[in-house]
Amino acid sequence: MSSARDAVFPAGRQALYERNRYSPAIRSNGFLFVSGQVGSQPDGAPEPDLPQQVQLAFENLNAVLAAAGCSFDDVVDVTVYIVDPERNFERVWPVVMAHWGEAPHPTLTGVGVTWLYGFQFEIKVIAKLPRAAAA
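^ thats the sequence. predicted structure below, dont judge the formating
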């Protein structure tokens, strides 16, 4: 029995993932498990503007989903992490909602945190792979 992981890498960011030693996503049993995505610039540095950081987190997430043949419409479960949500929620949430799509929406867990390695927002998802992408 092989324990090889079916990793998914978006174009252009492989070195960043290799340096940090994790896979952006793993396909398993018809689902795509996506690592937390942050609003990082191409070199991995945090985008300083919070709304733009959230926008970049979604762009990075969408690149991982696309590399697996998915889109946000295939997402079934979302976890978001926000540093100091009492202060930052109102600046973050309009950007999140711009990417959320139509009902029925995925499940959602929101977590307030004190530290995200220099970031203020992170999004982690599980997506159902379309039949063609699941093979």
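The first strand starts at residue 6 and ends at 8.
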